[in-house]
Amino acid sequence: MTTPSESSAPSRRLLITGATGGIGLLLAERLNEQGPGYEIIQHGRTPRNEEQGRVLRPAQITDLDEMLALMDGVDTVVHLAGASAPQAEWDDVLDANIVGTRSVLEAARQAGVRRVVYASSNHAFGMWDRNEQWPVLPTTLPRPDSLYGVSKVFGEALGSYYHDEFGLEFIALRIGWYAQDPLEADDELLHAMWLSPDDCVQVFRCAIEADRSFGAYYAISENPNRRWDITNTMVELGYRPQDSWTRFTGRSEDVVEGGAPVRDTWPSGS
Questions:
Q1: Model confidence pLDDT, tens digit, residues 90-130
Q2: CA-CA to 168 of 20 to 30 Å: which in 20, 76, 184, 250?
Q3: Terminal-residue alpha carbon distance, the chain
Q4: How many angstroms separate the CA atoms of 126 and 130, rounded?
């Protein structure tokens, strides 16, 4: 299998929805650092800096026609837009994550987009974590811990339908806990699911370029205490995580006999 760094593919036109969020801004700024370059269209509402303000393309995520207007000539959509808080209420996830995701996939289908890379979440499987029932494997059934998690299960199911029914390539990344610094939270479970900025850029590039048309993959760094299997992410997408929270901080893993209590609330970004 050809890895992204080995690919000599021509530049692709990418649409990043939600490019003003933490991961969206990171990808907009850094996806072109290695490998083939991308022509990036940034979608969002409030620009994060002056440079982004000059290129940002606003569109209502729930409006099919507005989203379709962004997809002319687009090869891949990286779909990050939506309600991102585990505490989000039903109306928020209904509009942004359910109706919005359907609008993005339908617009992609109508525009002839090759692939959608979908930002799923650990919260689609969060009840396994809350009940300390590990490991979580690629074949483990969804078990959402919130309405937000429910909306991510829906997104994966809708992507499966669009792939099988219409041939739209669909790669779901089940993002762990993205943070610049793993010590932003003093929580062993979050350390275990930490995704570093460098690994985040790499795993999204792999999802864009890999020779796979469909799949769901955990996106987590090489943390020594993780409970979520990234074997298929490595084998099928070519992901090679470089970071772990212990190497980043110089600390060692805390091993708790019988497991550690799992929190019922989650910090921002988890």
A1: 999 999 999 999 999 999 999 999 999 999 999 999 999 99
A2: 20
A3: 32
A4: 6
Q: Under 8 Å CB-to-CB from 5, ≥6 apart: which residues?
A: 34, 35
Burial tier of 253 (Cβ tally within 10 Å: 0-12, 13-18, 19+): middle
Cβ atoms of 229 and 238 within 8 Å: the answer is: no
- Count of structural domains, the chain: 1
Beta strands 177-178 and 38-42 are unpaired
50: Cβ contacts below 8 Å, ≥ 6 apart: none
Number of H helices, E strands in the chain: 11, 8
Q: At 96, list the tokens.
A: 């942004």
Q: Is residue 259 part of a domain?
A: no
Q: Quick check: 140 and 148 in contact, CB under 8 A?
A: no
- 3-state SS class at 171: strand
pTM of the model: 0.89
- Residue indicated by tokens 């359907």: 102
- Type and span of the H or E element at 234: helix 231-237
Q: What is the CATH number of the domain that holds 190?
A: 3.40.50.720
Instruction: Tell whether 261 is covered by a domain.
Output: no
pLDDT in tens, 186-226: 888 999 999 999 999 999 999 999 999 999 999 999 998 89
Residues annotated as catalytic are: 148
Among residues 154, 204, 198, the alpha carbon closest in space to that of 175 is found at 204
**What domain range includes position 10?**
4-249
For residue 228, what is the DSSP state?
B
Q: Indicate the SS3 state at residue 54.
A: helix
Residue 220 within any structural domain of the chain: yes
Please tell me the distance from the alpha carbon of residue 27 to that of residue 201, in angstroms, as a whole number: 6
The answer to whether position 42 is within a domain reads: yes
